[in-house]
């Protein structure tokens, strides 16, 4: 070791560079707020999220569009078709991406025909 602290501010950092963030403890939860700062409507009272895929019914013609949209956002999530006839899909995502996925799906409600959120499977 050279005796330097990896997380200490560097003297050679460019002006205006963001300060390094302290490491998150293993038990801490990510910030689950939506882009407008409000908590997600389906978070638990302690702020944690019910992790699991989000299910939607959608117009069958829109499944490929939605799939390619999610593929274009690297590491945001993926679409899985549960029932191609009934056009039921699942959005799979990492827990840290929940707010972004909900924000994207909410924004798409006005653009994608008959996008309807469904309750989770039991």
Description:
The protein is an alpha+beta fold and 122 residues long. The protein has a domain at 54-117. 17% of the residues lie in helices and 16% in strands. The relative contact order is 0.19.
Helix and strand topology:
Layout (H helix, E strand, L loop, with lengths): L53 E4 L5 H10 L4 E7 L4 E6 L4 H11 L7 E3 L4
Strand adjacency order, main sheet: 2-3-1-4
SS field, number of helical segments = 2
In percent terms, what proportion of residues is strand?
Answer: 15-25%
Counting DSSP E segments of at least 2 residues, the number of strands comes to 4
- The unreliable regions are 23-30
Structural class: alpha+beta
Helix content: 10-25%
Spell out the helices and strands N to C: EHEEHE
**Overall form:** globular
Radius of gyration: 19 Å
Taking all residues together, what is the mean pLDDT?
74
Oligomeric nature of the chains? single chain
Defining traits:
122 residues; 16% strand; four-stranded antiparallel beta sheet; 4 strands; alpha+beta
In short:
The protein is an alpha+beta fold and 122 residues long.
């Amino acid at each position: 070791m050279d005796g330097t602290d990896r997380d200490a501010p560097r003297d050679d950092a460019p002006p205006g560079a963001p300060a390094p963030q302290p490491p998150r403890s293993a038990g801490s939860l990510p910030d689950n707020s939506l882009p407008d700062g409000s908590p997600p409507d389906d978070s638990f009272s302690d702020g944690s999220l019910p992790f699991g895929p989000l299910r939607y019914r959608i117009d069958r013609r829109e499944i490929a569009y939605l799939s390619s949209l999610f593929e274009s956002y690297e590491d945001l999530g993926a679409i899985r078709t549960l029932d191609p006839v009934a056009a039921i899909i699942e959005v799979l995502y990492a827990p840290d991406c929940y707010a972004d996925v909900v924000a994207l799906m909410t924004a798409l409600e006005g653009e994608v025909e008959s996008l309807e959120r469904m309750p989770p499977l039991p």
